[in-house]
Every structure is written in structure tokens, then in C-alpha cells.
Amino acid sequence: MRALIVDDDFYSRNMIHEILRQVARCDIAVNGEEAIEAFKRGFSDGDPYNLICLDLLMPEMDGQQALREIRSLEKEHNVGPQQEAKVVVTTMLADEKETHDAFFLGGATSYLVKPIDEEKLMNEIKSLGLVEE
């Protein structure tokens, strides 16, 4: 599995990386613009991401906009719904509007509230079919 961790917070990035590196090849981006560039590189290299852990509130380009761009790029490359990257929104917000927008407007797969707990993250990626039980 290949994962992209997108978060402007150093602690959050490292925490998610420590958890995921046991089961995935991980890349890191600190904002939405870096995430889009990494995502494009994955396509051009023929090695797209299976999982994206995406913070919503970031400088430069926020997670909402990055998610819309990612889904748009997948459409351009004729990636069907079953092959889309699983996007787990990671946020400190329990903000219903942000969460609603990420799911219904952006196409997020699921979300976890920070701080990210190893058991919750592993259970989430197992439920998404990305790692074996």
C-alpha cells in the first residue's frame, strides 16, 4: 500500500507516519499544494496512492480544495470509484459543516478526529480494505 500524509502540523504528521509506516510506503506533504504535486507524480510514475490522510485546515491550499483537485485528477485519468484513493480526513474540528463538505462535496471516504489514535487509524484502514485483518 502507498500512503500520502498531508498535514501542516509536525506532530500530527509524525504520529500518522509512525502508525502507517508499518503497513505502507509513506510520503508526506505539508499543505494541499504539495499534496496535489505528490498525487500527480504518483499517477505519472504509475504508482498512485491507495490512501491519503488529509488535514482540512492548512495554509496555502486547504484540505477541502486539495480533495476536490485529487478527485478531479482521478476523473481525468478515468479512475473509477472502486479504484479511487481512500481519503481519510484528519481534523481537530468536530465541525459538522467541514465534515459534511468533505464527504458530500469533496468525496472523502471517512474521517478521524485528532489526536489520531493508532487503534482507530488501523481499524479504519482495515475497514476500507487496505490492510488484512
What report would you give on this structure?
- This protein is an alpha/beta fold and 133 residues long.
- Helix content is 44%, strand content 19%.
- It contains five helices and five strands; from the N terminus they run βαβαβαβαβα.
- It has helices at 10-20, 32-44, 63-76, 96-105, 118-127; strands at 2-6, 25-29, 51-55, 86-91, 110-113.
- Strands 2-1-3-4-5 form a five-stranded parallel sheet, sandwiched between helices.
- Helix 4 links the parallel strand 4 and strand 5.
- Helix 2 runs parallel beside helix 3 and helix 3 (63-76) packs parallel to helix 4.
- The model has no long low-confidence stretch (mean pLDDT 88).
Draw up the topology in text.
Layout: E1 2-6, H1 10-20, E2 25-29, H2 32-44, E3 51-55, H3 63-76, E4 86-91, H4 96-105, E5 110-113, H5 118-127
Parallel strand pairs: 1-2, 1-3, 3-4, 4-5
Helix pairs in contact: 2-3, 3-4
